[in-house]
Amino acid sequence: MANVNVTVNGIAVSVPDNYTALLAARAAGVDIPTLCYLKDINEVAACRVCVVEADIKGRPMRNLPASCVLKVEEGMNIRTNTERVRKAVKTNVELILANHRRDCLTCIRSSNCELQNLCRELGIDEVPFQGEMREAHLDQLSPSVVRDSSKCILCGRCVSACRDVQGIGVLDFTKRGFKTEVAPAYDFSMRDVECVYCGQCIHACPVAALHEHSNIDKVYAALQDPKKFVVVQTAPAVRASLGEEFGLPVGTRVTGKMVAALRRLGFDRVFDTNWSADLTIVEEGHELLHRLQNGGVTPMITSCSPGWIRFCEMNYPEFLPNLSSCKSPQQMFGAMVKSYFAQKMEMDPKDIVCVSVMPCTSKKFECSRPEMEVDGNRDVDISITTRELGDMIKRSRLRFDMLPEEHPDPLMGEYTGAGVIFGATGGVMEAALRTVADVLTGKDLEAVEYQECRGLKGIKEATVTLPIDGKPTEIKIAIAHGTKNAATLLDEIKAGRKNYHFIEVMACPGGCVHGGGQSIVSAKKRLDCEPKELRAKALYSEDEACHLRKSHKNPEIIALYQEFLGEPNSHKAHHYLHTHYAPRPFYVEQ
User: Fold this and answer.
1) Is residue 588 part of a domain?
2) CA separation for the pair 409, 420 (Å, rounded)
3) Would residue 367 show up in a list of annotated catalytic residues for this protein?
């Protein structure tokens, strides 16, 4: 790749020849405002907020080109701060505001809204253009995602995320002219279409046109009910993102402060979903061994990502027998709270409310599934996102930075490093291999890190040699993150071009660390860092710091089997910890 020499506001800089003027300006230390731009996802020059003046070797370019799609050339001179540019950018933003519902003080994205921040930077204190507003649609029928067209600025970022990143295409531009909006086809609700509730559209949205369906009030109601005993579990990835809600750098690990905050919010017990991640590995690992040794359906595919499960039900129902029958760690935890924990505490399960804090908007849907109930008790009653927990902490007026480092409560709070890495793509596979290798060899193997499982490559493949029935056997594994990559992998298997024994699939790019419920990182900040990579690094660092790094070594999981479940994959374990899935139609009739 060659470099070219360009000038930005009089600053000479040499940049790769595949750079745009936008990236060249950043290399020169100059920020160009953007709205529709999202690196590697949406680069379509729709909003015209990033326009610049430019000439090539003294030849002015016609009009004001959009810097996000303007490729640099040798000798290009870029000007971002001329009177003409400033006036054009401000006018374009004012025109966007003319059709935008401007209730910023009460908006869920207030202070974390790219449009609001841009108005502040441009000094916009009034909107000179007043006219007819587009008809607003508020779709809040889905248990996970709310769509509010009155906030939509038609940037197209959610469309690109859903279509190009996830390969689903639920959202698109509908209607024409002034009535154009972004919505599912035929005015269907997000509840009734192929949406898997991954929430990647929420991450892409610069405003509040898409956001999670809040369950905060339900949590407050449970906490204030004197007849209820409220326990909370926190997923592995939450600890790697929650600090961002309080201004900490992306990927800061805040495990101990998170536990302290939850105690001060009034939960009766603060537990950790890492505990049930360890439990999931023990169950799933033994299920894999049973399939390999007894001619079961392979490849076995992980089942802990609810977005992936919903995607499989709708798009690849022929692979449902391949899914592990294990519930996700969220649901396993809830099932054990309502049985094992209730028995230990001598409590009626109906008096217990199980709350989960998840990096995932699809978890809200998962805990409402009819399959997720045992003996008349819902596994998990309420699920909230990392962002919702951040809001609850802020409302309580807690100084998050001053909270002490505390540990989860015993019985269902101990965890190993294997449970922690569930939050990163490849983590479930790596955790499973740590346990399966020990079980098959009968040894406590020192090598616990499977580097081939790590990284952000869309589809990862590897071969691991394990002793099956006393004979060294090559086990072919694959890992896919993002539903588009999952579809590519399954299509290869269907065509007979690929063959595996065990597959991990996560619906979200990067796994749970970039789940739809995690802290939202602006398009501007994403130019300087990769949230998926930094958050995964935080989880791997916690794994390395753990005294125990294999799920089957967790003393609380060992006690659970000794005192309650008997053994992995026992009849009792299947009763509480396993489930089944069925094909699901694309569209639900209204």
Assistant:
1) no
2) 17
3) no
